[in-house]
Each structure stands twice: as C-alpha cells, then as structure tokens.
Amino acid sequence: MNICNLEGGRCAEMAMVCLTDFEEYAKEHLSKATWDYYAAGADECCTRDDNLLAYKRIRLRPRILRDVSVSDTRTTVQGTEISFPVGIAPTAFHCLAWHEGEMATARATEALNTCYITSTYSTCSVEEIVAAAPNGYRWFQLYVYRDRKLSEQIVHRVEALGYKALVLTVDVPYTGKRRNDIRNQFKLPPHLKVKNFDGVFQQETAGPEEYGIPANTLDPSISWKDVYWLQSITRLPIIIKGILTKEDAELAVEHGVQGIIVSNHGGRQLDGGPASIDALSEIVDTVQGRIEVYLDGGIRTGSDVLKALALGAKCVFIGRPAVWGLAYKGEEGVREVLQILNDEFRLSMALSGCRNVAEINRNLIQFSKL
Ligand SMILES: Cc1cc2nc3c(=O)[nH]c(=O)nc-3n(C[C@H](O)[C@H](O)[C@H](O)COP(=O)(O)O)c2cc1C
Ligand SMILES: CCCCCCC(=O)C(=O)O
C-alpha cells in the first residue's frame, strides 16, 4: 500500500499513472522559481495552453476487428531504429530538477532506446553526457552565437563525440517575455553552470544578463544563409526546430536540411502563434515526404502521439514532461514518463486498430470535427 504524508500533494511512493501525476509532483517539490521557469509560456500563455487544448479538439476514427493481439511501436528517425516514436526535446538546465541533470536524462533514453536532443544550455557537458550513456542515440540542439567560432567549436565537439544530428533552433532571435521569470528575477544558481561553455558563458564581467548568462550571446541576425554556413562546417544531418508555416517548410527543403521539428518552443516564444499540432498538416502537405517532419509541444498522452503520427509526424518529442520525471526520481523518473507514454501509445494504437506505426495514417482523423 502506498503511504503519503503530504496533504493533498504527491509523494514519491505513490504510483504514477499518467504524465500529469509527474507535473503535480514537480510543482509540489521544485522551488517556485524553478517551477515557474519550466512551466513558463510567453506573455499570456495562450499558445502554451493551446498546445494541449488543440489535441482535445481532434477526434479519432477507430477501426475494429483487426487482430491487434501483437503490436509493434518501433520506428526510425534519420535511418536509426528507436523503440517508439517519442523522444526528448531539448530543454535547458536539467540540474535544477535533479542533481545528475542531463546525465540522468541520457541514461533514461539509452535504457528506453529512444532519441535525446541535448540542449545547448545543458548543465552537464556533452562529454559527461556521452560518458554517462555511451550507447545512447543523441542529437545536439544548437543556437547560433554572434561569435561563430563558439558555434563552430561546439559543432566539432559533438560531431567527434558521436552525436548523430544537429537540431538548429530558429525561434529564439530573442528570448520570449516570460512574466514569472521576470518577477522572480530567475537565474541559474551559482553552483550550476552552462557546462559546455565553461569560462565563456560565465558572467565574469558586469553586463546585462539573462538567466544568469551574459545576454546577447545569441545572434538575432541569423537567416537562411546560415544554414549553408552550418552545412559547410559539419557532415551531420541538420534538423530545423521551430517551423510553423508551409512557406518556411518549403525553404527548409530547398536549403537541403534533413528534417523539420514543427514547434513553437512550448509556447515560450511568440504568444499568439498556432498550437504545433494545428500547424502540422500544412507542413506535411508541403514537404510531401522529401524530408522527415517531427513535432513537439503539448504531448501528454499516448493518444496525442497517435494523433500527431496520424497527421504525418514521423516522431514526437516531449519537453516539460521529461523535466517533471527528473524532478520525481532522476533517471528512473524519466524512464517512467517514457514508459507510460509508450504503454499509452501502444494501447491507443490497438484501440484504433493499428498494429504498427506504418498503419497509422490520416484516415484515423475525423476532419469534420476539427
Ligand atoms: C524549461 C524549458 C527549457 C527549454 N529549453 C530549450 C532549449 O534549450 N533549446 C530549445 O531548442 N528548446 C528549448 N525548449 C523548448 C523545447 O525544446 C520544446 O520545444 C517544448 O518544451 C515542447 O513543449 P512541451 O514542453 O509542451 O513538450 C525549452 C522548453 C522548456 C519548457
Ligand atoms: C539566454 C537564452 C536562454 C534560453 C534558455 C533555454 C530556452 O530555450 C528556454 O526556452 O528556456
């Protein structure tokens, strides 16, 4: 029997049934400033909240009597097999949630055989992450700095370490306005560092800061020509994260990248933009299978995963739920989050008559109710 002393709250002994149980636990146990940072959306949080609500507006058309006694959730991303189509989106500062930070996240994704996109703003270095989970499948998320040498160095480092793709985040020319972070004057505590840039991102001289990091390091002038620049310094596949329109999807294909992540940064950047699931169809229709299309934002259940795949995503990624898992029990917590999503996805597949991911298609979606 589970015993919990917390009145109205969750404790580590309670069985976790769904992802919102982890959210509740994290809210209860993290400091207010850390919780607010993870939960933040931009401005009035309309896009952040719509990321979740949009899935509720989509209805499924289940098929029956299809012998779903055996099911297979495996898929591939960029030619590599993963055990199910859910990976971990890049999120910053995992050591705020758990002392082993990104090393714990990396071990969990290695154990579950799925993809982990490491953030530029990790609080463990890429070397520590690879050492913690040497057989894990990883991509590296890149921001482009004003100082291109800095970007170039990290690209060469992750390439040498065996990262399999670069995820170029394109929706942060400036950080979105996150009201509680401003109210809390949120910053990384002094014992934590952006480890990949030790000595570079430390605020050693006085100057404007954002989250305790020197402000203005990211280059707001980046444009499509920088995709060519990135291609010139790496042989890794490039995946652009933060595309929400068919026009930009077409440009991404024309610029020769290998993938797109349809994303609004968890609603933390432009408030008023579309929910990512609502932007997916026009992008998939434009891309027409020329490159892989992925999605993140608001995935909280297995049926959300099913809906995204039915609308054409090859794989989806979770941001905040992974951090809630970390806050709960480190590696074990992230594993539980992924396992619950995998179990729910498998069940949703079976209940809608799909035996494998190849059988998931748009016929599953009831368009008249969209
Ligand atoms: C706390 C937090 C930190 C994030 N840090 C990054 C980051 O460093 N780089 C990046 O490309 N996206 C970052 N994102 C955006 C996520 O990669 C992803 O787009 C978003 O979290 C998906 O929405 P979800 O949290 O509803 O799953 C961050 C999101 C959150 C919530
Ligand atoms: C100075 C920019 C910090 C960005 C931190 C990571 C991120 O993308 C986020 O959404 O938070």
UniProtKB/TrEMBL annotation:
Reactions the enzyme catalyzes: a (2S)-2-hydroxycarboxylate + O2 = a 2-oxocarboxylate + H2O2; 2-hydroxyoctanoate + O2 = 2-oxooctanoate + H2O2
Biological process terms in GO annotation: fatty acid alpha-oxidation
Binding site for FMN: P90, T91, A92, S119, Q141, T169, K241, D296, G297, G298, I299, R300, G319, R320
Active site (catalytic residues): H265 (proton acceptor)
Sorted UniProt keywords: Flavoprotein, FMN, Oxidoreductase
Pfam family name, one: FMN_dh
Any single GO CC term annotated in Swiss-Prot or TrEMBL for this entry: peroxisomal matrix
Keyword Oxidoreductase: yes
Molecular function in Gene Ontology: (S)-2-hydroxy-acid oxidase activity; FMN binding
Residue ranges annotated for the FMN hydroxy acid dehydrogenase domain, each copy included: 11-370
PANTHER family: 2-HYDROXYACID OXIDASE 2, S -2-HYDROXY-ACID OXIDASE-RELATED
Family: Belongs to the FMN-dependent alpha-hydroxy acid dehydrogenase family.
Protein name: (S)-2-hydroxy-acid oxidase
